[in-house]
Amino acid sequence: MISKPGQRPIAFRMHGLEAMAVQEWIFCPGMLFQDTGKWWSDRGLRLRPHEGLDFLVYRDQADNLRHLHETSAFPVLYDGLVARIFPDFLGQSIIVEHTLPKSNAGRLYTIYGHTSPCTGIRAGMAVTEGDIIGKVAGADASPFPMAPHLHVSVGWASAPLPPDQLDWNFLVESDAVILMDPLDVIHCPHRKAKHADAGCRSL
Fold it and tell me: What angle do CA 192, 58, 201 make, to 5 degrees?
């Protein structure tokens, strides 16, 4: 059994969206953990199963469907240390290392992809649950026809991982990391949608 953080899971909130108050996140086919299809472009197959969740579509308290954009800020999910920040194909990925309670070695890693880190966020700094660590990156410079969105992955390791080796290839291919379904760790109101739903049809 994989240990979870001692804190109870928190509702995943996107700071800056309070005025529209997220009622639920909507995950279109291709946005969930281990999905093999794309939610963008031709909706063909991914090169490898999805490593996490893609946050993009949500329903606000007025029951309107909305999308994230490049000014949407996001918080770190738990107390921890920023382990590494490195480029990805839509922006920067931020990896935060979390010490597991009652464990001398185990570590939880949360990974936030396709972001623009906040000024001052750097490797080695301590962060506290709820701190704003970045915004969703714009897609203007991306070679992919993809809407701005936040990718979140969660990984577990039995011992601390070397920060200089942390990148997407290492996280996916290394036996030292077990990637988990973020929905098992994060509590967020959500539903799985079909492509026929308005929130997915427009992607």
Answer: 65
Q: Residue 32 corresponds to which tokens in the numbers above?
A: 């969930």
Element spanning 33, H or E: none
Confidence of residue 84 (pLDDT cuts 50, 70, 90): very high
For 37, 50, 180, 184, the CA distances from 7, given in Å and listed in that order, are 33, 26, 17, 13
Terminal CA-CA length for the chain: 37
Domain 22-201 CATH assignment equals 2.60.40.10: no
3-state helix, strand, coil in the chain (%, to 5): 10, 35, 55
The answer on pLDDT for 77 being more than 70 is yes
Q: How far apart are CA 128 and CA 51, in angstroms?
A: 24
Total-model pTM: 0.92
Alpha-carbon span 68 to 66, nearest angstrom:
7
* Helix or strand run (H / E) with residue 65: strand 65-67
3-state SS assignment for residue 168: helix
